[in-house]
Amino acid sequence: CTGVLPTSALRLDREHIASIGKLRRLEEIHSLYLQQNQIEKIENLDSFPNLRFLCLAGNRIQRVENLRVLPHLSVLDLSHNQIRLLDAEELPRSLRILDLTGNECTRQDGYRDLLVAALPRLLQLDSQPIHGNTAEEEAGGGSPTSEEEEEEDEELLPELRIPFTVDRDFFADLRRELVGRARRRRRKILEEHRERLEELRERRALLLGP
After folding, report:
1. Which of 21, 98, 164, 202 is deepest in the core (most CB within 10 A)?
2. DSSP, res 105
3. Whether 171 contacts 160, CB under 8 Å
4. Side by side, which strands form the sheet with 53-55?
5. In the CATH hierarchy, which fold is given to the domain comprising 1-131?
């Protein structure tokens, strides 16, 4: 790839690709489709620093590795590969949707609990929703999502083109959940602002007297 790509999605599925080669830095690519190839190793993805959607389903991948270079990755489809053991530390904490169905690693003891604990923003695992794990702040262990992250969430959704393993209705639910979270944050900020105004009025009344 040497020219300017016309869209932010790059489709290389079903192209008999055996490996992910080193490319020039492609910051404009948000979605990468590499399903149904012959890829054996996850590598060289640092060429896509802004990647949010990655589909590697139906390849020959044996290990989850080299994904921490993708700090914005929200959707990862690794279904129907040859992954026997899973190291959750190799997965980006930004993940919202993860699919590992069809891999032996899904039979590991405590598989689901391990991933839920390692990925605080996870909303869906193997086509099943995760309840009570929508964000770090809702688990009581982190700071609220910044406005910049909210904008990234809103930008992500139109970019998604449903991979064959992800349920279409889920994205409507995801959008509603993200919008609901943003509204709750705005409501909380407004309530705090009103409380501060009321406190200032009370102090002013005390200072000025009757």
Report:
1. 98
2. G
3. yes
4. 9-11, 31-33, 53-55, 75-77, 97-99, 124-125, 128-129
5. 3.80.10
CB-count exposure of residue 46 (10 Å: 0-12, 13-18, 19+): middle
Instruction: Single out the residue of 69, 129, 81 nearest to residue 106, CA to CA.
Output: 81
139 is written with which tokens? Answer: 């688990």
CA–CA separation, 40 vs 178, rounded Å? Answer: 35
Torsion 11-12-13-14 (CA) sign: positive
Token duo for residue 94: 């930004």
Q: pTM of the full predicted structure? A: 0.66
Check: CB of residue 92 under 8 Å from CB of residue 71: yes
pLDDT string in tens for the chain (210-residue length): 334 444 599 999 999 999 999 888 999 999 999 999 999 999 999 999 999 999 999 999 999 999 999 999 999 999 999 999 999 999 999 999 999 999 999 999 999 999 999 999 999 999 999 876 544 444 444 444 445 444 444 444 444 444 444 445 555 666 666 677 667 777 777 777 777 777 777 766 666 665
Q: How far is residue 186's CA from residue 180's CA, in Å, rounded to a whole number? A: 10
Q: How far is CA 120 from CA 52, 91, 205, in A?
A: 17, 12, 46
